[in-house]
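Hi W.,

Here's what went into the run:
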Amino acid sequence: MLTKGLFFDGVSSTPQHVAVRLDTQNGNLTISNDGITLAAWPLSSIESEQSEQVLHIYEYKNSLAYLKIPEVGFHLYLQKYLHENGYLSWYQRLIIAGTHVHLAIVAFLMAFIVVGYFYILPEVAAAAAEMLPETFDDSIGNTVYAEFVTESTIDSTKTAQLNAFASKIRFNNKKKIKYIVVKSATVNAFALPNGTVVVYTGIVDQMKHYEELAALLGHEVAHINNRHSIKMLCKNLSGYLFISAVLSDVNGIMAVIGDNVNNLQSLSHSRNFEKQADVDGLQTLVNNHINPNGMIDLFKRLQQATKHEMTSLEFLSTHPVTTERLKYISGLIAEKKMDINHQPQLEQLFKQLKAK
Amino acid sequence: MESTPSTNKSYQLNFIGNGSSFFSIIAINWLLTAITLGFYYPWAKEKKLKYLYGSTTLNNDHFQFLGTGKEMFKGYIKALVLMVVLFAIFIGIVEKGHPNLATLVLYLSLAAILPFAIHGTYRYRMSKTIWRGIRFGYRGDRNELVRNFFTWVFYTIISFGIYAAWFTVNLRNYIFNNIRLGDIEFKSKAKGDDYFWLNVRGYFFTIFTLGIYMFWWQANLFNFYINNLSLEKGEQTIELRSTATAGGFFKLIIVNLLIIVFTFGFGYAWAVTRTLKFITSNIQLEGDIDLDTVFQTEASYNDATGEDISDYLNSDIVI
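Here's what came out:
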């Protein structure tokens, strides 16, 4: 098969009129001018591209030379020949497969992402968290705590009182728990993975009964016992890695969407963790014969406080009190068989803690 | 040759790609990136650049990107190693109890890498871009760029950021004045003053007009960049002239935004091809350089980012 073309030799941009022959015997594309062969390109190393009725052929392995062929009949013949004789790479075959195949690929990926993200990933993350040693929890907790201490004022008297209060309660904790009271009007309390429970004076000020404090501690210690922080970290991290690995080449917008999906998902994880901490915290109250309604009182009081006071209620932003939450806690209390004893020791310690 | 009177020639810059074929490239990239857990990234970049460059034509001949995934993968690994080292140093200083010092060191070293990265990127990209078999090239001197870069950074700091406009323009001029296509040289004669006032005006008018002036600002920036560029070959020149208008930018930006929002990002391919079509169709070339007699002058440069970054690592990162 013979045709005419324009040839650029890779030395200058001057176009040369050439004769082009597809030499099937030697598997070459031969380019000649007035009977002199300028180049013989092996079919296995050419790349071609068709646009606006012109076929552009390159052979980069040995030179920057470039060939343009205007005859449409020759394009079709060459493309068909290359395809049928296995000269096209898997990538070129994938490209010429057509838009419907590419749309199918995208649909498949979407399905893969959904299945992977919502069903496979949580399992992997949980397994990863299990594999991490407890020392990891400690070192993360210590780092956060070191940072936190520099920015806060610890009330050492109240810290001692809170530790005395907590020592009267059995939490089923595997790790040694350290309680800290921080002077701050902020209504907040949190647990660090190294076994530190931080309680702000602001939240203690809101409480009326020792049962509420016991409920708060029960809830926070449950976070530590269940290693919720580390599990959350693993989930967020693996979610982020998964999303960025899958979407890295798509575009910025997809990455942003992916990121938000990840955030939403981690929010619902955190709801599950909160629920587990409520359930376990409630069990701690029951085990210690403390009135479990303390937990309901605590949440209701915090809810009330939002309406009346201007103090910053950070605890509620991470522990939203919803009617649903109060309902399942009440449900759990109703289910449980328990004997409640008045605990004068706890009451006494609680009063000391409340005193200015 | 010199005695022949120069006559004006015609030049045509075009983008002939379309959204659906670019979408195919992206879809396949996406698939391969996903199943290789992200390691396909450099090859995906190669395919993307090949399509976009290959769809841009000058006088009906394609530009071509000849870089390979393999080269970019090597660069990517080197860059990764560099980042790991930087963060290890950061963590090391934090562990010693100096978090502020660690942050300072990290930011300074990242800033210090920038001119090296710019140099490496242009060397590689230009060397791998061809037209009619002729390579582009970047002949900037790395040490000179680094010296200039830090001088400009210094001026920017002592002028409380005002010099940033001149910084941007100087950097742009430096880069463009070192770019060439074979024996044709690029020239950029942009002035920092113009750029500064253009942005001051753009900033305040955009506020006064509640954002509407943004499109004029955008058009002015584009015109500023393009109208200051030209090509030179001995006595012959080609001047670049922008025909972009605020209305054009308005239509481009709003429609792209709608495409992306209403397709949940899947219309990205169409937004990109529309943008490139807009850019190429708004650049006119006028002059007398004969594009049929451009000669190869540049050698191939295969290091995707690495050389510069590793040189840097060996020399002064420890200090």
